[in-house]
Amino acid sequence: MNFVVALWRSPYLTPSLQYNYRPGVSELTRASQQELQHVKQALLRQSIEVLDDHTIMQLFDSLPTIAADDINGYFVGHFARSGNISDWLDKVLRVFQSMGVRWGKRARNVRIMDPGIAIIGDMHRSSVVLPLLWTGNSELFDFSFRGKTSAAMVYDNLAIIDHFRILQRSGRHLTLLGAFTIRQRHAGFFVLKTVDELNDAAEGVNKIKYLQYVSDEEQEVQTESSFGTVTEASKLDDASFVAGVATKVQQKQQHKSSNGSSNGDNGHRAHKHR
Predict the structure, then answer these.
(1) DSSP state, residue 242
(2) How far, in Å, CA of 141 to CA of 32, rounded?
């Protein structure tokens, strides 16, 4: 593991190509809309076609931004081939993909994110997800890059920052285009797509954990509250319901605590009287 980290930090892996943090005029005027659309479709269908790096960057500049708080859950990804360091990563990952292992990322919250995970299986609930430990942890920030402020993933242990834009959004399904940078130098592009099956499974587990955390007595408070009887776990999505349950539970705990202290005082007085 230390060897891998040392290799990533090696100056030999520092890309030579560096884009300005604000786009230049020549970059914005070179590619036509037809060329940009061709590149977008090639990225969406995970093509092995070698694309023009400058055209992808122009597409990246034209895409809408996304806030760091809006990135969560499981993502599966692939690298775009554009003559950069990421090209050999794509070749290696496609070999693993042929064996049923996919590369992706997992965002638990803005401060805890697995920048690399291996998804083993058919991308459904039965899949096994393993974090790639050598990538460490990463955090999400809203970062100014190429003239726009959008979400960026900053690695804790490696000199890597990934900048994100929305490539496509369809309902809750999200596809992101990431610009991969090492030491603030451009290293390539990658695409991330949400894995709806894994996200649904994780959401269900979180709801079950919430219900298990609530004791039997607190569940009675839930049922007897003015918010109605809980018949489906999906009702926990209602923020007002959860807030009401929390208030009721807290009130009952405070009531029990005051009764306990009162009984303790009475017992002490009775003992003293004797």
Answers:
(1) H
(2) 32
Structure tokens at 10: 């090696």
Q: DSSP secondary-structure letter at 65?
A: P
| Rounded to 5°, angle at Cα 154 from 150 and 158 | 150
Beta bridge partners of residue 154, listed in sequence order? 139, 161
Query: 3-class secondary structure for 37-98?
Result: HHHHHHHHCCCCCCCCHHHHHHHHHHCCCCCHHHCCEEEEEEECCCCCCHHHHHHHHHHHHH
Amino acid at 272: K
Query: How many C-alpha atoms does 187 have within 13 Å on its Cβ side?
Result: 22
Would you say 106 and 114 are in contact if contact means Cβ atoms under 8 Å apart?
yes
**Tell me: the pLDDT tens digits for 209-226?**
444 544 554 555 454 444
**3-class SS at 127?**
coil
How far, in Å, are 7, 120, 122, 203 from residue 126 at the CA level? 34, 9, 8, 15
DSSP of 197-211: HHHHHHHHHHHHHHH
For residues 31-60, give the mean pLDDT: 90
Report long-range pairs for 83-89 (Cβ below 8 Å, ≥24 apart): 83/50, 83/53, 84/15, 84/17, 84/53, 84/180, 84/186, 84/187, 84/188, 84/189, 85/13, 85/15, 85/182, 85/187, 85/188, 86/180, 86/187, 86/188, 86/189, 86/190, 87/50, 87/188, 89/188
CB atoms within 10 A of CB 195: 23
Global model pTM greater than 0.85: no
3-state helix, strand, coil in the chain (%, to 5): 45, 30, 25
